[in-house]
Amino acid sequence: MTSTNLSVPARALAIGAHPDDVEFGCGATLRKWSTLGAHCEILVLTDGSKGTWDPDADTRELVATREREQLVAANILGVARVRFLHAVDGELTVTRDTVAQVCAAIRDARPEVVLGQDPWKQYRLHPDHHAAGRLVIDGLVAARDPHFFADLGTHHRPDELLLFEAQVVDHFEAVDAAAVDAKVASLLAHQSQWRSTMAIDDGSDDELRRTRDEFAATVRSQLHRSNDTTTANDVAALAEQFKRISEL
Length: 248
Description:
Blueprint: E1 3-4, E2 11-16, H1 21-35, E3 39-46, H2 59-77, E4 81-87, H3 96-109, E5 113-117, H4 127-144, E6 160-164, E7 171-174, H5 177-188, H6 205-221, E8 239-245
Parallel strand pairs: 1-7, 2-3, 2-5, 3-4, 5-6
Antiparallel strand pairs: 6-8, 7-8
Helix pairs in contact: 1-2, 1-5, 2-5, 3-4, 5-6
């Protein structure tokens, strides 16, 4: 059964492996909700220290840069708070400690909706994305039940889980052009990732403008879809796609 548009939550928490993952996965949805009054937060699990193709890069400076970029991007989306777990990029693992940290973040943020990467996505290359998805699931289960990590705050059960980059899509969050523009702008705030992640190449001003425009057009094209007349729900032409899990 396909669904469209949750009620705007009072509080939402989006969890991603790296700086910019949340923006790719659900940036327009966060912008939509924050504009409508939701308190939105982001939890970034790794430090982004391997997010460059430059073998001579100062990784300590890269970590600081990526954190600054994440804060700028979050501000564009209207996100109220960004939390950083600071696990080493490329070395994120599902352990008792990392599950506890995600559990603590969920209990502290107390979101009605949690958004995260789908741990069951096939053919995913990056190991951190697998681990991040698993941590969302395991951290949420721990957060909801009082006898998991009983010393880490009062248990909290979210109402909904939306998984982005989903293997099976069954939920759409309709977004307008302003929310899409904010998504693009938030992604472009991650300038350290222009070359490696967004195929925005250095060069002349004209070349840089062209590749930035191509990236923006690609992001926008991924949000376009026709109305699905096979379902009872009217799916908007612009929407972010998720797997929805409501039995939490």
